C-alpha cells in the first residue's frame, strides 16, 4: 500500500491518509473485505503519530467506507452500486425522508387553509383575521401610485437598502410617536410582514430544545414558527387583565426561557388587553431574569372606545423589548409590509437575515406606503376603521345576545378583530364544524391557539371585520343554531349511553 504524504501541504496529514485510502477503495485497489493495516504499523511505516492514523480511520468510518471490529481490525465495506432501473422508470423522490425533523412533523396548515377560503357569495366567514375589503383605500392608492410614476421615474423600481426605504422608516417613526414610542428611523428595519419578524426572531434566538413562553391562548402562527425552530413552547394563562404575571414568575424560575412572546393589546384570539399594572410587572420580571420580550402589536391602533395603555416598548427604559408591527391589519394583507423596532444589536441580526432571505421589501410598496402616511391618508383611514369596526363589533355582540344558547358566553373587545366565545361544555368540536358548515358558516376552533393543542375545545374565535356587516346577524344566528344542534346531538348520545344500575 503506497501512501505519499506531503508534509508541507496545508491539508492535515490525517486527511491526506484518509483521502488516499478513499481513492483506493473507490478504484477497487482495496476491494470490499480488505483488512487495512493496524493503526500502529501504518503509523510506523508512514512515520506519523498513531493518533493521526486513528483519526483517518475514524473519518473513513464516518463516511461509511470501513468498519472496525474487535479482534478483526478495520475492514473495507462493500460499495455496491444500485441496480440499474428499467428503461424510462425513475424512482419517486422520498421527500418526507429528506425534510428536517421539525418540518416533517408539522402538518398544521391552518393559515393556508384560512387564506384559501373563498367559498362563494353564500359563505359567511368568521374565521380569518382579514381587514374589510370594502374599506380598502383603493382609489387613494391608485392616485398616489400614478403620482409616484410621474415623479420618481425609475427610482421606484430600483433596489432599496436592506433595512428598508429610509423615508418610510421616517414615516414609521412618526406612527410610533403616536403610540408613545420614541424611536428614530435608524431604530427600525422594514420586514415582509410581522410574520417574517417572528420567523427571524426564532432563527436568531432559538436553538433546538430552548423554551419559549407565550400567552395561553395565543396567535397560532407564532406557535408554529417557534416549534419549527425546535423550541419547547409553554403557555402562560391569561385572564380579563391579560397575561397572569404571578404564574409567569413561577415559569421563569422553572424553565429559564429564551424569551417571552406577547400580544398585550387586543390580544389574538381573546381580545383582552394587558393592564398597565401588569405591563410594569412583566417588564420588571424581564429585567430581573434578563428575559427579552417579543411584543407583537398588529391591532394597537384599532381601538373603539378609548386609546389603550401604552405598548410595552413605550414603557421599557432598558432596551429589553423587541417590537413588531405591521400594515396588514390596518390596510390589507397583500402589501406584506411590517417592521421591527429594537436595540441596534438585534436590528443588525434582523438586517443580516433580511439580506440572506429576500434582500429587501418590495420597493414600490415602500414608496406607496410612505406617501400614504405623509399625505395624512393613513391617519384618516385608521379613523374610518375605528368607526366601522366598532359598528361591526356591536352588531356581532347584539346578535350573540339575541340568539344566545345556554352555556355560551363571550367578551366585549375594546379593539382589534375578534370575539372570543365560550361554548357549552358538551360541544364536540368536529360536529360543530360540520353543523355550521351545513349552514355555510365557518369559524376558527379554539384548540389552534393553545401550545399543547389539548385545550380550547370549548372556545371559538369569531372575526367581525372581514364579513359584510349585513351578514353578521344571519351568520351568528346560523352559528348558534349549529351550537344548539350540536349540544342536542351530544345530549341524545349521552341518553343512549346510559347504563342501568346493577
Automatic annotation (TrEMBL):
<dbReference type="InterPro" id="IPR051446">
    <property type="entry name" value="HTH_trans_reg/aminotransferase"/>
</dbReference>
<keyword id="KW-0805">Transcription regulation</keyword>
<protein>
    <submittedName>
        <fullName>Histidinol-phosphate aminotransferase</fullName>
        <ecNumber>2.6.1.9</ecNumber>
    </submittedName>
</protein>
<dbReference type="Pfam" id="PF00155">
    <property type="entry name" value="Aminotran_1_2"/>
</dbReference>
<keyword id="KW-0238">DNA-binding</keyword>
<keyword id="KW-0032">Aminotransferase</keyword>
<dbReference type="GO" id="GO:0004400">
    <property type="term" value="F:histidinol-phosphate transaminase activity"/>
</dbReference>
<comment type="similarity">
    <text>In the C-terminal section; belongs to the class-I pyridoxal-phosphate-dependent aminotransferase family.</text>
</comment>
<feature type="domain" description="HTH gntR-type">
    <location>
        <begin position="11"/>
        <end position="79"/>
    </location>
</feature>
<dbReference type="InterPro" id="IPR036388">
    <property type="entry name" value="WH-like_DNA-bd_sf"/>
</dbReference>
<dbReference type="InterPro" id="IPR000524">
    <property type="entry name" value="Tscrpt_reg_HTH_GntR"/>
</dbReference>
<keyword id="KW-0663">Pyridoxal phosphate</keyword>
<keyword id="KW-0804">Transcription</keyword>
<dbReference type="InterPro" id="IPR004839">
    <property type="entry name" value="Aminotransferase_I/II_large"/>
</dbReference>
<dbReference type="InterPro" id="IPR015424">
    <property type="entry name" value="PyrdxlP-dep_Trfase"/>
</dbReference>
<dbReference type="Pfam" id="PF00392">
    <property type="entry name" value="GntR"/>
</dbReference>
<dbReference type="InterPro" id="IPR015421">
    <property type="entry name" value="PyrdxlP-dep_Trfase_major"/>
</dbReference>
<dbReference type="InterPro" id="IPR015422">
    <property type="entry name" value="PyrdxlP-dep_Trfase_small"/>
</dbReference>
<keyword id="KW-0808">Transferase</keyword>
<dbReference type="InterPro" id="IPR036390">
    <property type="entry name" value="WH_DNA-bd_sf"/>
</dbReference>
